[in-house]
Write a structure and sequence with these properties.
By secondary structure, the chain is α+β, with helices and mostly antiparallel strands. The protein has helices at 5-24, 34-37, and strands spanning 38-42, 47-49, 56-60, 74-78, 84-85, 90-95, 100-105, 117-122, 138-144. The strands form two sheets. The chain has a five-stranded mixed sheet, with no helix packed on it. The chain has a four-stranded antiparallel sheet with strand order 1-3-7-6. It starts with a helix and ends in a 5-residue tail after the last strand.
């Protein structure tokens, strides 16, 4: 009995498609793309804020490990001062039921200054509640207006 070449060819093509599909998926952090972890930020990316003392909020799509939400893993960069890291100026508070991280100035007298650009970088070391890291960084920025708030 001769093998059916049409069947062998079809099977080989099907196996090839399955292998290609498996290789084309993001294998670096399946399901851990930063955009899939973060639903919104306040201020929004590229927003201009008038209140130079406003809090920063990051809303996550899943429960997070609060221990990973800190000044080492969430960076605030001050554009007016050469992207100086100002992360230590903030208190970091995570609210589990809303999955929201809020950064507020520790010192009520602190602010971003006027006509400034602030960049917030969420490093890939931030972890979900399951302790799996995000593995890629996510950033957003905003600017402050010409008058303090």
């Amino acid at each position: 009995m001769k093998p059916n070449r049409s069947y062998s060819y079809t099977l080989a093509v099907a196996v090839l498609f399955i292998l290609l599909a498996a290789c084309s998926k993001d294998s670096s952090a399946s399901g851990n793309k930063p955009g899939s972890w973060i639903s919104a930020t306040v201020p929004a990316n590229n927003a201009q804020v008038e209140d130079t003392h406003s809090a920063i909020s990051v809303m996550f799509t899943k429960a997070m490990n609060p221990a990973s939400l800190n000044a080492e893993n969430i960076l605030g960069l001050d554009g007016k001062h050469g992207d100086a890291n100002i992360s230590s100026l903030f208190d970091y508070a995570y609210t589990l039921d809303t999955r929201t991280l809020t950064l507020e100035f520790k010192d009520p007298a602190s602010d971003y200054g006027t006509d400034n650009g602030i960049q917030v970088v969420i490093t890939g070391k931030v972890e979900g509640a399951d302790k799996k890291p995000m593995n890629e960084e996510y950033s957003f920025g905003f600017s402050t207006g010409g008058t303090g708030g």
